[in-house]
Amino acid sequence: MVKIGVLVSGGGTNLQALIDAQKSGIIKSGEIVCVVSNKPDVYALERAKKANIEGCVIKKSDYVTPADFDKAIADYMLSKGVDVIVMAGFLAIVGENLLSAYKDRIINIHPSLIPSFCGEGFYGLKVHEKALEYGVKVTGATVHFVNEIPDGGKIIAQKAVYIEEGDTAEILQKRVMEQAEWIILPEAVEMVCCKLKGDKNNG
Ligand code: GRF
After folding, report:
1. How many angstroms does the Cα of residue 201 sit away from the middle of ligand 1?
2. Beta strands in the chain, from DSSP E residues, in sequence order
3. How do residues 72-88 score in pLDDT, each as one tens digit?
4. Is any ligand 1 atom within 6 A of the Cβ of residue 111?
5. Is the pLDDT assigned to residue 43 strictly greater than 80?
6. What pTM value is reported for the model?
7. Inter-residue contact 146 to 168 (CB < 8 Å)
8. Residue 6 Cα to ligand 1 middle (Å)
9. Cβ–Cβ < 8 Å for 37, 43
10. Catalytic: 110?
11. 88 touches ligand 1 (CB under 6 Å)
12. Which of 56, 108, 157, 201 is the most exposed place for a label (fewest CB within 10 A)?
């Protein structure tokens, strides 16, 4: 079974979608073995606890440099035997230590159709505010591999969501989560785990 480590920073609705997908069998090639938050007391850690998944906090402020913080996450994931890392609402930047330890094995969910409204400074509600400001009629979510460019890695899956009359950023964020993020993230994680499982079996 492929071991999945999940990185979180907040409410953990995407983590919950992964937990639910594992229970329902949508994710059958992988198993979530740990959850790491860069912030204490976030509800995502509660969700992990309720699902009997080990959770821990690794705070940037506990480390002298961003590279040390990054290495602490990599070392923890390696110590748990994690094969693939999923960034589910994770708001810290990953650096060289993590990227090299998990080359092409870190997945991120971004709440827009990349290459629109992505990159440095585009996260959370701000993504939806910019989409509304621009006046696009369609937005959505993207699951992609993580590399050194923010939101720049190879796209794995996308799902479109229509913007409706009177949408606020909050309303739009909720619709994109419900109609796109929580659907394509589990599907993409299963796809990647299934491939990794095949690679592992073929030696
Ligand atoms: C979501 O909009 C996700 O796309 C973004 O962070 C937000 C919060 O995610 N990456 P979660 O509820 O903590 O999973």
Report:
1. 33
2. 2-8, 30-37, 54-57, 84-87, 106-110, 138-145, 155-162
3. 999 999 999 999 999 99
4. yes
5. yes
6. 0.96
7. no
8. 13
9. no
10. yes
11. yes
12. 201
